Amino acid sequence: MLDRSAFLSYMSPMPAPFPIPQNPAKHTLFEDLQGFSIALITTAIGLTIIAQLGFITGQTAGLALVISYLTGYSFSWVFWLINIPFYALAWFRMGKEFTIKSALCVTALSILVAVIPKWMSFDTLNPVFGTVAFGILTGYGLLGTFRHKGSLGGLGVVALYAQDKYGIRAGIVQLCFDAVLFTVAFFLFEPSRVLYSLLGAVILNGVIAFNHRRDRYIAS
Amino acid sequence: MQTADPKADTHSLLEDAQGFIFGTAMCAFALVMLRDLGLVTGQTAGLALLISYMFKLPFGWVFFAVNLPFYWFGYKRMGLKFVLKTFACVALISVFSEVFPHFVSFETLNPVFGAIMLGFMTGAGLMAIFRHGGSLGGIGILALYLQDATKFKAGYVQLAFDACLFAVAAFILPLPQVLYSLLGAVVVNLVIAINHRRDRYIAM
């Protein structure tokens, strides 16, 4: 199974930005299970916090939040349904194991976001604190998911497909999607909500950009 | 994609700073849950919690004060850089844990879910602090110092300390709170035991 950075270096003439270890230690099944449990629960708490504050984020989760605010349907169902079309593409482009792992992660996250509010709800929640906490918690959760070779499906697969097929860099596709999503959100919601959301999205991406280094965390 | 590419084996100052802010914020958020549920934990943080419950003192100040005697051992055993990093982390936790309750409080918090969650978050926070060469000071340093001086294993010193702490807590907290506290402490230690691997996260 190729992880994203290995996939990028394999699929494109671009050299990898850093050397990728050739024979990294493997996680055991138990290690993967505890990794995904911690990562997905933490991600779900971050999403619970911004859902309570009415904020959004980027990528498929952000699109699902926007739709759930507009229609009143629960985030969990919208997020779960939105991801379905992407599995078809993932199946052919990224392989069976990646697709199944993605579907399991997306399903687990959807269930967690639905049940966590029964166990945990906030009395006071400062919006700046909430959006920063979201960025840190969900950034950490995604990092754990990636380090254990999982994915939350969705747009990343399309971005890699676009890179492969049309030579557009995957990161640019994702950035464009988020730019469109946040622009639309500015017209739909109060600007303050969107600005708080932007802060959270920046912190989330900062956590991943700083810490997702295959040359430092070398197990796969 | 990484544009600036610092060396794999050493963290830059900025990387350490974000690691410590992440780690201490995670631990401080977990402490908000811990105090909301009226639980304790192990080590110096647990001692500070017990003192703050018993004498109705603000946790942040107690935690900061409880750690002061240990920096000398830290300096002798681990050097100046480690002590400065540890001091910064302890100070950040002290401040965050006083400030966060103004920004976040819980309407409902299931104690089993809360204990597991705070275990995950404290485990994540501590691991980030350790991976960036810091610590939360206290008993761990003393334990290492004693291990050097007397050959008494550091792990046993910490275990004995926690055993005393939980024995005291059993007298002053209701039984369910003691059990939830134990659950949280077990989760923290499992998260670290499984994931804190210097052979997998190799940067210093």
TrEMBL record, chain B:
Signal peptide: none annotated. It comes from the Bacteria. It is found in: Cell membrane. GO terms for cellular component: plasma membrane. This is Putative transmembrane YitT family protein. PANTHER family: UPF0750 MEMBRANE PROTEIN YITT, UPF0750 MEMBRANE PROTEIN YITT-RELATED. Keywords: Cell membrane, Membrane, Transmembrane, Transmembrane helix. The chain crosses the membrane at residues 12-34, 46-70, 82-100, 154-172, 178-195. InterPro entries: UPF0750_membrane (IPR051461), YitT (IPR003740). It is a multi-pass membrane protein.
